[in-house]
Each structure stands twice: as structure tokens, then as C-alpha cells.
């Protein structure tokens, strides 16, 4: 490959990284410049003790005061709350079961009505809304929506497209945090790490333990998650991968080891927290509207953090000495070692950074989807491999581009196909592209086969 081609690929990769960062700077600045709204903590669920059913009458901008909200319990008894100036209500639940939530329509403002949920299965009798299978330790809400009578809350296709595109970029950035590390591991070692997605789950689980259980501030807990997960990468390479490499195990054998490690981590998660969904924070996040786009504060922060971290990783790979050494090992390990590069140290650093990025992806993903389960990594595993393969095996910038494409396809595809098939749509795009360009978008032909 000519030097001109290499330079052109470098320019494209840098342009893609900085384009993503620039697209997210504006909404992040809007978030920082807008007035701060403190979330009123009305109810905090406790593990195996209480749960919460909460909501807001009206909107965040125009809350409705003085509405009587009634909770019907499994035994038929009722409890009523009247909303304050912030329009919020929250019931503390002490027993699991099925509950009904309704309002006294006489207390609603003139010309307003309770809007039924879009899902008919959630509609209860006489205008109530069902909250079935309530489990202790969880937060349920918001469950009620009040709108003016005759209000049409349907959205246009264009608004839906814009909202889905933002959601796709958000998912793509979180996938990129994990897939960049997965791609670097493949590039430097040749290992297809099937346990990589479990490192994402580990990030969410450690975040739950530090923030929810131990009570640490979210920022402090997030930093510790990255450090702890990064250490697990260093530890894995030190006691497992380096000895196996020195014993001369083939790539197929190493891949089988990663599958076993993946299963072991899944069983460890089940043993630790069971099959339930655990949340890093239990407060319902505040939402913000930017035109037709509705997004939570947590999503904005997650997108901003992911974009900044990915830009820093890209600059480190392009501008720093260790970054150039990493790319040299990924291109030709034997030649890099002959040139005086300590490949073992580079590989160990790659494992450490990759696991740290996965941990960060895990805690951000848990915040965005309001929880993490033992099989969260299993659900996104194919998306990670699709992103890495689509962008080009072994290329970090290719993993970034591939992740953004996969994220957009996953979120946009429900506009034309049933939502249950959105992951299949992403894999179909991957297959079609590989038929045309087997090496991926930014990969080299010699990497295939």
C-alpha cells in the first residue's frame, strides 16, 4: 500500500472521529448552559424492602398541582396522594404484586384528561393504568400522562427519524467504547474475545455495587469502575493470556477459552445479583426537549463523555509513542518486535485500556437503559462483533465508524420493520457490505482469510 493511501486513510479516520465530537458539542453545551433542575427524590427503593411507583402530572415545564392520584393495592385497599407544585407523586411499595394507578378526574385542570398508554395491555379498568409484577428494589414510573382533551400527540415521520437518529448515535457511541477495545485486542493478538461483552456487564455491575449499594457519588463510582475494569484486563493478560501465548496455543483454542470465560462471568453475575435487573441510580432522570428531540440528562452526559474519550483514544493512537507502537504491533507483530518494541508490554496495555473502556461503556449503558442484568453483554455481543467486522478487523477507527452505523441501523430500522427484528437488520447490513467489501470499511484486504 502506498504512503499516499495510508495518509488518506489516516485523514478519513481522524475526520470521522472529530465529526462525531463536533456533532455532540452543541447539545452538551446547551445542557451545561441551561438552568439546573434538581430531581426531587420522593421515593428511593431498597433491595428486598421497598419499591416505588412514581410519576409527574403534566410536563416538566408545566407541572400540574392539586391532582389526586390513587394507588390500588393487590388486596384492594387504596392510597391517595395529592401532587404538589412540582406535579410529582410517588408511592412506596412494601409488597410485590399487581397495582393500579388512577386519578380523580374532578381534580384535573379544566379541559384536561388522562391519556391512556399506547400499549393496551397496560390499561386498567375505569381509566386506571396497570403496573403488573412489581418487584421490591425497583423503581416504576412515570406511569401517568395528562394532556389537553383532543390533543394529538402523534409524531411525524420526520420527527421520528430525528429522534431515532439521536438514539442511534447514542447507542453507537456506547458500542464504540467497547468495540474499539475489542478491535485493538484482535489487531494485536488475533484473539476474537467472546468474553468482551461480559466486561460491559461487569462495568454496569461494579457501578451498581459502588453507587447504589455503597452509596458513592456517581462521578467517583464511574472513575473507580474504569480503574477496576482496567485492572481486570491487566490481570487477565498477566495470569491467562500471556502464559497461553507463550505456550503457543492457536487462535481457535484461545477463542474457545474466551467462550468459557464468558460463560463463567455470566454464572458469576447470576450468583451475585440473580436474574433481576439492577440499577446504578434509582432516581428517574430529568428529560430535556430540543425541538422534536427528547433526551435525558444522563443520555447527554453519556454521549458527551463517550465522544471525548473516543477522541482522546484516537489522538493517543495517532500522536503518542505508545499509540504508534500499538499500531505497529497490530500491523506486523514480528516486525515490531524486531524493531525493538516490547510487544508483551504493548499487548498488556491494550488489554488494560480495552477493559477500562468496556467498563465505562457498561456503566454508561446501565444509566441509559435504566439497569443491567446478567445477560446484558450477551444481548449486545453480536452488535459488537458486527461493528468491528463492519469497520474492518483490527482497526480502532473502523470500529468507531462501524459502531455508529450499527447504532443508527438498530434505532432507525423499526420505522420500516417490526422492532423485534432491529438487531437482525444490523446483521443484514453487515452481510451485504461484506459481500461487496470483505475487509470492511477501513480494513485492509490482507486481513481477510
- Shape from CA axes? elongated
How confident is the prediction overall: mean pLDDT? 81
Widest sheet: strand ordering: 3-2-5-7
Percent of residues in helical segments?
55-70%
Rounded to the nearest angstrom, the distance between the terminal CA atoms is 18 Å
Structural class: alpha+beta
The strand count comes to: 11
Task: Determine the number of helices (DSSP H or I, runs of at least 4 residues).
Answer: 12
The percent range for strand residues is 5-15%
Identify low-pLDDT runs: 16-41
Write down the domain tally: 2
Compressed to H and E, one letter per element, the order equals HEEEEEEEEEHHHHEEHHHHHHH
Main pleated-sheet profile: 4 strands, antiparallel
- What Rg is obtained from the alpha carbons, in whole angstroms? 24 Å
Name some characteristics of this structure:
single chain, 449 residues, alpha+beta, Immunoglobulin-like, 2 domains, 4-stranded antiparallel β-sheet, 3-stranded mixed β-sheet, 55% helix
Characterize the structure shown.
The chain has two domains: 3-26 and 159-447, no CATH class; 51-153, Immunoglobulins (Immunoglobulin-like). With 449 residues, it is of the alpha+beta class. It contains twelve helices and eleven strands. The protein has helices spanning 3-33, 157-189, 196-213, 218-246, 251-273, 297-319, 321-331, 333-338, 343-368, 376-391, 396-412, 422-436, and strands at 51-56, 68-72, 78-82, 88-93, 97-103, 112-115, 129-134, 139-140, 145-148, 287-290, 293-296. Helix 3 packs across helix 9. The relative contact order is 0.14.
Amino acid at each position: 500500500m502506498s504512503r499516499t493511501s495510508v495518509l488518506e486513510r489516516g485523514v478519513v479516520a481522524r475526520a470521522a472521529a472529530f465529526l462525531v465530537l463536533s456533532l455532540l458539542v452543541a447539545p452538551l453545551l446547551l445542557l451545561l448552559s441551561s438552568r439546573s433542575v434538581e430531581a426531587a427524590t420522593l421515593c428511593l427503593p431498597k433491595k428486598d424492602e421497598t419499591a416505588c411507583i412514581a410519576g409527574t402530572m403534566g410536563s416538566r415545564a408545566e407541572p400540574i398541582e392539586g391532582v389526586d392520584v390513587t394507588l390500588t393495592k393487590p388486596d384492594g385497599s387504596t392510597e391517595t396522594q395529592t401532587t404538589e407544585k412540582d406535579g410529582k407523586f410517588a408511592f412506596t411499595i412494601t409488597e410485590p404484586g399487581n397495582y393500579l394507578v388512577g386519578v380523580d378526574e374532578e381534580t384535573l385542570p379544566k379541559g384536561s384528561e388522562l391519556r391512556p398508554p399506547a400499549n393496551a395491555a397496560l390499561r386498567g379498568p375505569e381509566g386506571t393504568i396497570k403496573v403488573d409484577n412489581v418487584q421490591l428494589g425497583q423503581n416504576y414510573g412515570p406511569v401517568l400522562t395528562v394532556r389537553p382533551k383532543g390533543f394529538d400527540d402523534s409524531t411525524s415521520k420526520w420527527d421520528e427519524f430525528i429522534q431515532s437518529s439521536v438514539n442511534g448515535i447514542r447507542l453507537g457511541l456506547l458500542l464504540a467504547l467497547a468495540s474499539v477495545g475489542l478491535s485493538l485486542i484482535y489487531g494485536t493478538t488475533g484473539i476474537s474475545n467472546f468474553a468482551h461483552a461480559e466486561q460491559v456487564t461487569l462495568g454496569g455491575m461494579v457501578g451498581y455495587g459502588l453507587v447504589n449499594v455503597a452509596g458513592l457519588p456517581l462521578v467517583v463510582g464511574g472513575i473507580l469502575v474504569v480503574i477496576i475494569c482496567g485492572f481486570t484486563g491487566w490481570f487477565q493478560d498477566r495470569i491467562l493470556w500471556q502464559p497461553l501465548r507463550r505456550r503457543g496455543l492457536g487462535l481457535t483454542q484461545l477463542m474457545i477459552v474466551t467462550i468459557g470465560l464468558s460463560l463463567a462471568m455470566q454464572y458469576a453475575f447470576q450468583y451475585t445479583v440473580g436474574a433481576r435487573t439492577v440499577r446504578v441510580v434509582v432516581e428517574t432522570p430529568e428529560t430535556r426537549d430540543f425541538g422534536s428531540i427528547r433526551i435525558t440528562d444522563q443520555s447527554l452526559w453519556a454521549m458527551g463523555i463517550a465522544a471525548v474519550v473516543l477522541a482522546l483514544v484516537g489522538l493517543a493512537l495517532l500522536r503518542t509513542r505508545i499509540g504508534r507502537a500499538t499500531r505497529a504491533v497490530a500491523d506486523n507483530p514480528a516486525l515490531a518486535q524486531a524493531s525493538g518494541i516490547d510487544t508483551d508490554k504493548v499487548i498488556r496495555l491494550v488489554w488494560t485500556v480495552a477493559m477500562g473502556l468496556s467498563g465505562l461503556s457498561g456503566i454508561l449503558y446501565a444509566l441509559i437503559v435504566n439497569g443491567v442484568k446478567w445477560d446484558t453483554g450477551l444481548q449486545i455481543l453480536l452488535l459488537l462483533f458486527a461493528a468491528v467486522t463492519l469497520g474492518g478487523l483490527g482497526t480502532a477507527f473502523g470500529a468507531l465508524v462501524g459502531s455508529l452505523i450499527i447504532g443508527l441501523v438498530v434505532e432507525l430500522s423499526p420505522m420500516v420493520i417490526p422492532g423485534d427484528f432491529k438487531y437482525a437488520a444490523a446483521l443484514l447490513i453487515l452481510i451485504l457490505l461484506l459481500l461487496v467489501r470483505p475487509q470492511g470499511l477501513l480494513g485492509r484486504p490482507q486481513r481477510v482469510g
